[in-house]
Amino acid sequence: MTEVAKERQLETSRWMYVGVGFLINICLGAVYAFSVFRGPLKTLWSITDTQVGFPYMIFLGMFALGMALAGPLVEKWGPRKTSLLGGALVGSGWILSGLSPNIWILTLLYGVVGGSGVGVMYGCPIAVSGKWFPDRKGLAVGLTVMGFGLSALILAPIADSLITSMGVIRTFSVLGGVFLVLLLALALPLKFPPQGWAPKGCEPAVNKPGKTPACVFGDLDRGQMIRQPAFYALWGCYTIGCLAGLMSIGIAKPFGLEVAGVSSTLATLAVSIFAIPNAVGRPLFGWLTDRLTPRYAAAMSFVLILVAAALVYFLGKGSTAIYFVSFVLLYLNLGGWLAIAPTATATFFGTKHYARNYGIVFTAYGVGAILGTTLYGVIRDKWGALPVFLPVMGLAVLGLIVALVGLKSTPLPGVSGAAAKE
């Protein structure tokens, strides 16, 4: 094969990795369909609403922790072997969950084992897409993780049908068997591009005075990254974005029933509909991040979160229209942050240590999930559901300020790298 033919093949095949990553994320994102399990589990074991939420909360926490721990594995083993481990854990966690005799064992098997597996595997297709698309990191990563947001739209009705026909516990095992086969098969093609390769028209970054590299913005290791002010600004913004979005996912149906006054059927349908903006937000904000820089894409996200929270707080009581508009915006922005943050990590800190670095940044997701769930629970118990959006407005303003002031790449003296495009 000639060099020209080989180059064309690489140019064409790199889109395959985006497609593979999209399918992987469809399976990994099944956690966003957990709401369909809540009612049947509560009835089966006669437990409280708080108890039935434990597997979901622990899953998201272990997801974030698994990402942080898996970063070094991707660098050492590569994306294929790391993905095989993650896929095995995900499938096993779901399959074994079908043997759970109570909510505590389910929390261990589904939350800890399954959540850890998602954390191990999630970063692999993102790292692969980012390295194959140094010229369009945001778009490629956004399309890759789009499957995670779209998962509930596809899997929620399937899970609901299985629960009706075979029971809630057995459904975990059936879905787990399917996930195990699919994830192991999809892990096999994952690999990074050849060393030094770049797509046509996009040369590898070369640090020149006064010139921003075309594709890669300076490779910092984890120790160098955490010395940068941009890291703390990104982590804080990511936490706030995930807090607002993950809280919205957890309360969408009961909030629609209690505050907006929609019917139970419409509230259930809304949960599936909201999966669409969650998915669309990923490639949309990935594309915006490529063009506006992470700084201004993040600022735009917080403006939209502020608008959504203000609408529902001031005008949402008894309004179906406001309910849909506000929650569409909140879901859109959660998806957006799952594209902004990985793209910003590569933009500010490079791709050489990307898997390890993004694993640290991704801990913001777990913190946001825990804080959002806790914030809603405390406020809901004391003052009702609607007042929860008052602190969300305040956090959106804080995030906007942090994004505009802190999301800049200003490497310390002696640290390799170039400033991000502003």
Written overview of the protein:
The chain is mainly α. The chain folds into 2 domains: 1-202, MFS general substrate transporter like domains (Growth Hormone, Chain: A, Up-down Bundle), CATH 1.20.1250.20; 203-422, Growth Hormone, Chain: A (Up-down Bundle). It contains 15 helices and no strands. The protein has helices at 3-28, 35-45, 49-52, 54-77, 79-97, 103-132, 137-166, 168-187, 222-225, 229-260, 264-315, 320-349, 354-361, 363-383, 389-406. Helix 1 (3-28) packs antiparallel against helix 6 (103-132), helix 6 (103-132) crosses helix 13 (354-361) and helix 7 packs antiparallel against helix 8.
Beta percentage is under 5%
Shape: globular
Quick one: how many beta strands? 0
According to CATH, the homologous superfamily of the largest domain is: MFS general substrate transporter like domains
CATH top level label of the largest domain:
Mainly Alpha
Using only C-alpha atoms, the radius of gyration works out to 21 Å
Identify the CATH architecture of the largest domain.
Answer: Up-down Bundle
Count of separate DSSP helical elements: 15
Briefly note the CATH topology name of the largest domain.
Growth Hormone, Chain: A
SSE order, as H and E?
A: HHHHHHHHHHHHHHH
